[in-house]
Amino acid sequence: MLHKVIFMTQSSKSKKKYFGTDGIRGTANTYPMRADMALKVAMATACVLRHARNGKHMNRVVIGKDTRLSGYMLEQAMASGFVSMGMDVVLVGPLPTPAIAKLTRSLRADVGVMISASHNPYQDNGIKLFGADGYKLDDDIERQIETKIDLDLSEDLVSSEEIGKASRLDDAPGRYIESLKRSIPQRGSLEGLKVVVDCAQGAAYKVAPQVLWEMEVDVTTIGNTPNGRNINDGYGATATGKLQEAVVDQGADLGIALDGDADRLIMVDEKGNKIDGDQLMGALALWMKEQGTLQGGGLVATVMSNLGLERLMQNNGLDLVRTDVGDRYVVEHMRSHGYNLGGEQSGHLILADHATTGDGILAALQVLNIVKHGDKPASEVLKVFETVPQLLQNVRYEGKSPLELDSVQAEIKSAQERLNGFGRLLVRASGTEPLIRVMAEGDDSDMVTEIVSDLCSVIEKSNHIV
Predict the structure, then answer these.
(1) Cα–Cα distance measured from residue 265 to residue 464, given in angstroms and rounded to the nearest whole number
(2) Tens of pLDDT, residues 206-261
């Protein structure tokens, strides 16, 4: 069976000044991730949304964060910016990103803010913005905010009588936990499953073990002692070693690895093997098809998803639609084309019947439900396709992108010809770093290795030319 070879040199979305594919991100207390910048982002966001509502008064903003030390600084700065524009701020403290999206809707807020750098180390931080509908703000709104950030907004400040106020919502975790429990049909129990959950010393360190306990899971928790500096440090979805060991040592049925803001999920089977987002999406798609709940005739993934997932979908009469890298683009396509399942190989899983963004805990509960009803161990239930050999390497460059050079273009063409339609090649520039990402996959692992090695070598040599 022939498979499409995909070649991309850059993101299909034009680059923005501050916002990347997942908000604004950088090293804490260094531009642009400083308190003064956070203040301006809040003020600019309020201005843009006020204009979008034709001057209609906006009442409320929800602000959450993960467990990074710098979260205190950015939280207070953003709260100050919003109240100066006449908005009331609801502070909910450390909670997962999807909880903020959900609370923004349920509290009838005008905007939601998550302060997090996801899977990055504690020295970094970031700002993610959600609209009143719980979805990430679209590119056009973010560009308008960027324009306002660089302006003097003093004339847009409200009068002293109209300054907003800030308060804390103590029952925010409980609201989120109840919404997660409602995602299981008939609020069914998951009793009988033994699970280890790794909270990455991050935003889910309280709610993840709590919801599992309330669903009657025999749960052991690791990575749940955050100190402001240990988020993602040797724990979580990007460092699963400790979880893999714990699952085997304790004879658990499954391991759950979340990242710093818990919008990502990687799992571990009873043998200690990692289960990535592609396998989880495949298992969810087949289960939802069987239950009659899968919409759109398939699922939406990105160009990074494995060819094996594509073949699984085809063999089961389902479609796999690929988007650019970034869960926001997956969500956009799902919304516009009627899909209710999508995600990324890295573990961002979107279940649109229950959430507006990737939710690691939500996805974990759905997978646990599949395993409970599967009458087989997780290693059998969740390995739904054979992974096609795939290799990704990054090449750092200086100056202009080497993808513009004839020598690099010629090597790319040669690689495409070597794959001969039986694999995929993806070559793209990173949207956040001076990196060229080279990914190839195909049934011949030796060929895949040679193709990536040869192409990276040509790109590296081009550093002396560009």
Answers:
(1) 40
(2) 999 999 999 999 999 999 999 999 999 999 999 999 999 999 999 999 999 999 99
**Cβ count within 10 A of residue 338:** 11
pLDDT at 14: 57
| Distance (Å, whole) CA 105 – CA 169 | 15
Q: How many CB atoms lie within 10 A of CB 19?
A: 22
Q: What is the CA radius of gyration of the chain?
A: 22
183 closest CA partner among 354, 410, 65: 354
Which residue, 438, 346, 300, 331, is CA-closest to 118? Answer: 346
Task: Look at the block and give the residue holding tokens 């709940």.
Answer: 293
Domains, the chain: 24-170 (3.40.120.10), 175-381 (3.40.120.10), 390-462 (3.30.310.50)
> How confident is the model at residue 186, as a pLDDT?
74
Q: Widest CA span of the chain, in angstroms?
A: 70
Quick one: pLDDT at residue 20? 86
Residues with catalytic function: 118
Q: Spell out the residues 6+ positions from residue 299 whose beta carbon is closer than 8 angstroms to its own.
A: 281, 284, 285, 313, 318, 319, 320, 321, 339, 341, 342, 343
Rounded Cα–Cα distance for residues 123 and 44 (Å): 25
